[in-house]
Each structure stands twice: as C-alpha cells, then as structure tokens.
Automatic annotation (TrEMBL):
It comes from candidate division TA06 bacterium. This is Asparagine--tRNA ligase. It comes from the Bacteria. GO terms for molecular function: asparagine-tRNA ligase activity; ATP binding; nucleic acid binding. GO terms for biological process: asparaginyl-tRNA aminoacylation. Keywords: Aminoacyl-tRNA synthetase, ATP-binding, Cytoplasm, Ligase, Nucleotide-binding, Protein biosynthesis.
C-alpha cells in the first residue's frame, strides 16, 4: 500500500493509502470514532466504524492520546464536512510511540510556558505554518540570487573584529585569543565580490542585543548580496526585486499557510514595484509632521520607523543617513560630507527595518580614517584595507534579515515565533 503525505490527499480519492503521523485530536460517538492525524504536511480526519474494522484496531482508540504516533491505513473519500475536505475510512491502525499527557492543550498558555516548551510548541498549526513560510522566504531569496548569477560564498562565523559596532559583540575564547561571532558576512563578501563579481552569503549573524524588544533576537539569519561595480541605487534595485520575488513566492507556494495564520494576502499583493525611496532628511520631516519631536542626526528608533512604515502602504527605502548613525564602511555622499550612501528597507504596516545596506567606501585613506574614528583596531582590518589597494572599485550590497522579513510577512507581534528555536536576551533553553 502506498504511503502518502497528507498534503497530497486529493490525488488519492477512492484509493487505499497509508499515512504516518501523530494524533492531533479525537472524538467519539459510540460506534463511530473520529480521529484527526497530522503528519507535518497537513491534517486528515479518519473515521473508525465498529462494524467496518476489527475490534483490536477499534479498541486502540482509547489508547490514542494527543501526539501518539501512529500509522493508519484506509480508503480516502471526499467529505465536505471533514477538515481539509477528505476523510479516511480506517481499516488498520498501529501505535508507534505512546504519548504521555501532552502539556500543550487547546486552551491559552502563557508565552513563557510556551517558550519553555518550544520543542513541542512548534508542532502546533500556527507554528508549522510560520516555519513553512520561513523556509519559503529563504528558498525564494536564494533562488532569486542564483537565477541572477550570484555565486554563494560562505562567510566565516569566527571573526577577529567587529563589522557592526563593538557594543553587540559576542566574545569567544579562540585558543587563548579573543574572537567574535560574526555580526554580518559583509566584509568577507566584499573580498569575494572582488574575486567573483556578484556574490552572496547566507548564514547566521550574532548580536549581543541587550534590550528586550519585539524585533531583536541575538541569533538571526541574513541573506547578504554584494555586487562589484554597483552603486547604492543598484543595491536598492536588487533589494526591491528580491523582496517582490520573495512575496510572490510565498503567496504562490504558501497561500494556505498564510490563510491559516489569518494573514490578509491582499496587503502583500499590493507590494509591487516600485517602492518609494526617501532620504533620511525627508523621513525626519515626515516624523516631525506627525507632531513627534526628533533631532536631525539621531538614529531612528522603533517608534520612528513605525511612523514612516505606517505612512507608506508598501515597503519603503530610506537612504542617505548621517555619518554618525551608520557603520564605518559606508561611502560618504560625494554631494554632502555629513551623509553616507547607506539605506534601510522598511516593511509597511508599522513593521520597520527588514534590510540594510548601501555603497561601500572604496577610498583607502578615507576608510583608514573611518576605522580610526570608530576606535576599531586597524590591524584586524589590514586584509579589508588591501581590497582598496589592489584594484578598488565602487561596490554595494545589503543584508536582508530573515526573521524580520518573516515577522512582517506573517504579521506577527513578536520576532520569537519566526524561528524554531529563537535565542533572546532572556532565553537559551531549549
Ligand atoms: O542593518 P544591519 O546591521 O546591516 C548589516 O549587518 C550589513 N553588514 C548588511 C550588509 O550590508 N551586508 O543588519 C541587516 C539586517 C537588518 O536590516 C535586520 O533585518 C537584521 O539584519 N537584523 C536583525 N534581525 C533580528 N535581530 C537582530 N538583533 C538584528 N539585527 C539586524
Ligand atoms: Mg540596520
């Protein structure tokens, strides 16, 4: 008998099949027992009729606790009343692993209880939908870059120096020396772009974020494209195309999951090209026009980004930031020494930054000055400065945060639900 996945059930109308999964729910009305299985791809109602199934199987019903693992066989038929539209008439059932009383029930649980049981919580309907959407976001962003001819180059995780500021470094002992977990693969990406043209890295980034927010985790994943002979506008063009591709792919392949978590798809469908591009200074004007006090030159916090992100009904780019609020590697605006050619991409509905990048400083001397001004160790950046000594070119790139993107696409309140095992300030278990 053919073992099938529940997601493919409609192809087996009238056929005998086997499914392997877990018990999601059950109910009984005398001689008719209903069970709902899940197998990670969907949910299927099975029915056991006293007269159609041998007693040894019928009696197993009482042992089927929530999350008991089971193999079931039977014939599939369409039934509009069943969740998913199909039902299995069970003629065989086997318990693979018994289940103790399951700690997560259908009733409301507090967040800290759910987080402590994250290894079990991820089995729930909403969490599996989010994880499938995350998988598609990653798949789509890589697919997009691969199709455009970008070469994947993995950046190291152990690094000798900071990329995104020294305050959020995770220090590790590296055989007696200090090393740091990577905050971004960007600097290595720049070297790779000089070797291969258009490249990207995809991997984890680590930041010792000491504030508790709904949009920061200490371990997150970035897709980081880096392009040789590209300016800041080229980078924004690629970011725009990539995000549109991601949204289209999620709608195309994960529409059911979006529905299941209650996400309104029409809003995502509106996110077509072009996205608005405003300068930092224009963004400040918008913030002030809403009656909020803000001093030019300061960095935007979450509330400021929220204002901008609510002002537009699509993702929006902010570019040309003050030098002080951005990292040392950003190229100065040739028209205004106070600005750098960096950008952030903000998601609508108040979500704010999901990607950041820009044009890199290609001038050796300017870069040396910026490293010194930022109190970073020149020694550790010697290799990086070499890139400006041997055929330096204009180049640009950005990093798209997977968790931030998933949080917005799924319209989640908190970033913790965007990864299977999120790492936060207060939690490293399970
Ligand atoms: O804006 P960031 O710090 O930029 C960089 O790391 C660049 N070096 C990327 C590049 O140009 N190659 O981080 C990039 C993105 C942010 O826009 C955000 O989506 C995500 O990474 N991010 C975080 N996501 C979750 N938790 C955190 N603590 C994050 N910090 C950054
Ligand atoms: Mg940023």
């Amino acid at each position: 008998m053919k073992r099938i996945w529940i997601k493919d059930i409609s192809m087996y109308d009238g056929k005998e099949v086997e499914i392997r999964g877990w018990l999601y729910n059950k109910r009984s009305s005398g001689k008719v027992k209903f069970v709902i299985f899940r197998d990670g791809t969907g949910y299927l109602q099975g029915v056991m009729l006293k007269n159609n199934i041998s007693d040894k199987y019928f009696d197993l019903f009482d042992e089927l606790n929530i999350e008991t693992s089971v193999i079931a066989k039977g014939s599939i038929h369409e039934d509009k009343r069943a969740p998913g539209g199909y039902e299995m008439s069970i003629n065989y059932i086997e318990i693979i692993g018994k289940a103790n009383e399951y700690p997560i029930s259908k009733k409301e649980h507090g967040v800290s209880f759910l987080m402590a049981n994250r290894h079990l919580w991820i089995r729930s309907k909403k969490q599996t939908a989010i994880l499938r959407i995350r998988s598609e976001v990653i798949n789509a962003s890589r697919d997009f870059l691969n199709k455009r001819g970008f070469t994947l180059v993995d950046a190291p995780i152990f690094t000798p120096a900071a990329c995104e500021g020294t305050t959020t470094l995770f220090k590790v002992d590296y055989f007696g020396d200090d090393a740091f977990l990577s905050q971004s693969g960007q600097l290595y990406n720049e070297a790779a772009a000089m070797a291969l043209g258009n490249v990207y890295c995809f991997g984890p980034s680590f930041r010792a974020e000491k504030s508790k927010t709904r949009r920061h985790v200490t371990e997150f994943w970035q897709v980081e494209p880096e392009m040789a002979y590209a300016d800041v506008n080229d980078a924004m063009n690629v970011a725009e195309d990539m995000l549109v591709y991601i949204i289209e792919s999620v709608i195309k392949y994960r529409e059911k999951d979006l529905e299941n978590i209650g996400r309104e798809i029409s809003i995502l469908k509106k996110c077509t090209k072009p996205f608005s591009r405003i300068t930092y200074t224009e963004a400040v004007d918008i913030i002030k026009s809403k009656g909020v006090d803000f001093k030019w030159g300061e960095d935007f916090g979450a509330p400021h980004e929220e204002i901008i992100a609510l002002h537009f009904d699509k993702p929006v780019f902010i570019y040309k930031y003050p030098v002080e609020v951005k990292a040392f590697y950003m190229k100065r605006d040739p028209d205004n020494e106070k600005l750098v050619l960096g950008f952030d991409l903000l998601a609508p509905e108040g979500y704010g930054e999901i990607a950041g990048g820009g044009q890199r400083e290609e001038n050796y001397n300017t870069l040396v000055n910026r490293i010194e001004e930022s109190n970073l160790p020149l020694d550790a950046f010697k290799w990086y400065l070499d890139l400006r000594k041997y055929g330096s070119i204009p180049h640009s790139g950005f990093g798209l945060g997977i968790e931030r993107t998933v949080r917005w696409i799924c319209k989640l309140h908190h970033i913790r639900e965007t990864s299977a095992f999120p790492r936060t300030l207060e939690r490293i278990y399970p």
